[in-house]
Amino acid sequence: MHEVGPDNTIPADALSQAVIEIERHVSSAGWDQPAQLFALVPTGDLLAAEPQLAAELGADDASQPLTPVAQGELPGGMDDEHLAEALARIEWPEAVSGCAVAVERVVLPASVETGLTAAESDAELARLAGSDPRRHEVRMVAAVLRDGDRFGAVRLRTHDEDSAVLTGVDLVPTLCQVLSLTFEPTTSGSPGSVLGGTSDNEEKLP
């Protein structure tokens, strides 16, 4: 069993476990989903703050060092720039050790992307990218910890199997960088709440 140490250190594989759990949870609902945000909370702290979750989690879930807590959907169709703007307005409470986001993207070869620079609008760019036969539809899950650790997973729609999911520390660096903004101090806005349950969309992954 993995547990958070007495000095509140998180096991090295805790983040990768959380990413895989989130990726499979999101994938179980199929494709064409909006971006989804998750808080990562130390399981022991969550159980101490909300003992009623103990029965729901069960012994097996309690063995996971980090618990993903769904924070709801982000506006659909957000590109990386607008996603960064939305995430930059978030400031997590101290109880949150990390966060993750799941997004779907159309990925094109670099040579094809160069040819799309003449698109006059985001709508035209999306249309051109979506109709190109060389495109790959992917789901990316990126996660970061407050201390800077990061991990990611990528699933291709054409290889929609758990065994084909790619994972790694440097797999989705741009998304991880965007997520890290949520742990930078802000001068406006109020921190969100996870343990307090202020969002109707919050839920523990099943």
List the topology elements.
Blueprint: H1 14-27, E1 36-42, H2 43-49, H3 53-62, E2 66-73, H4 80-87, E3 98-107, H5 110-114, H6 122-131, E4 136-145, E5 150-156, E6 166-168, H7 173-180, E7 203-204
Antiparallel strand pairs: 1-2, 1-3, 2-7, 3-4, 4-5, 5-6
Keywords:
single chain, 206 residues, alpha+beta, 7-stranded antiparallel sheet, 7 helices, 23% strand
Describe the 3D structure.
The structure is a single chain. 28% of the residues are buried. It contains seven helices and seven strands. It has helices at 14-27, 43-49, 53-62, 80-87, 110-114, 122-131, 173-180; strands at 36-42, 66-73, 98-107, 136-145, 150-156, 166-168, 203-204. The chain starts with 13 loop residues before the first helix and ends with a strand. 30% of the residues lie in helices and 23% in strands. The protein is globular, with a radius of gyration of 18 Å. It is of the alpha+beta class. It has one domain (14-183). The longest helix has 14 residues, at 14-27.
Number of domains: 1
The largest beta-sheet arranges its strands as 6-5-4-3-1-2-7
Structural class: alpha+beta
Q: Helix count?
A: 7
Report Rg.
18 Å
**N-to-C order of helices and strands:** HEHHEHEHHEEEHE
Mean pLDDT: 76
Largest sheet entry? 7 strands, antiparallel
- Please state the overall shape, judged from the principal axes of the Cα atoms: globular
Would you identify the regions where 5 or more consecutive residues have pLDDT less than 50? 1-7, 189-202
